[in-house]
Amino acid sequence: MRIALLQSQLSRGRLHHSHYSRGGYAGVVGVGSSPTRLSAGLLPDSFDEQFQSFVEGLSGGTYSGSAFTVVQQEALIVGYLMLLAAVSPYVLGLFFPQTLNEQFFLPIYKDDAVGRTAEIYWKLMYATLGILLTTLAVVEVFTTNVSAAQLLRDTYLLWATFYTAATVKIRVEATRLNIIDVNRFGIQLWHSLVVLVMWASVYFSYAAYS
């Protein structure tokens, strides 16, 4: 009879609150209340609230806790697609080196010490970006109570800063150092587009939290 009663309550969506002791099942049953609360003995207190906020966010609700708002979702997705377009040639270069080396990774600097230094500086910038992204994740995970969306948003801030610096670097090398041997219009235009999209993504993803 007890099993039949539990099955009946579950089928009606009324069973929602179970308590577990360290030794096992301790007893049941809260009936007739909201099914969104779970006991601390089963899951963390905030889990059900975060899940409810997440569901509300996906359905177009207002921002609460760690949920995604519609604006935030769109901003983060656009930012990701922009980064994917920006860096995918370098990733593909690992698998198709001959094709990309001939058609994409063309030499742009003069073949001298200054040009070599400019090439090395790109590696230094990428390495710095990598350690900053990792450090940001470590700091926010262990010292703050941020959601995954907030952490992702903050990484976009670093990416936007990186591409801003890259755009300035190319301009300085072309206009002041005079070490770029090719027409920089396409390169500069592409980097400027990445900068604009990434800063827009950062702005709207931050605005979603305000």
From TrEMBL:
<feature type="transmembrane region" description="Helical">
    <location>
        <begin position="120"/>
        <end position="139"/>
    </location>
</feature>
<keyword id="KW-0472">Membrane</keyword>
<feature type="transmembrane region" description="Helical">
    <location>
        <begin position="77"/>
        <end position="100"/>
    </location>
</feature>
<feature type="transmembrane region" description="Helical">
    <location>
        <begin position="151"/>
        <end position="170"/>
    </location>
</feature>
<protein>
    <submittedName>
        <fullName>Uncharacterized protein</fullName>
    </submittedName>
</protein>
<keyword id="KW-0812">Transmembrane</keyword>
<keyword id="KW-1133">Transmembrane helix</keyword>
<feature type="transmembrane region" description="Helical">
    <location>
        <begin position="190"/>
        <end position="209"/>
    </location>
</feature>
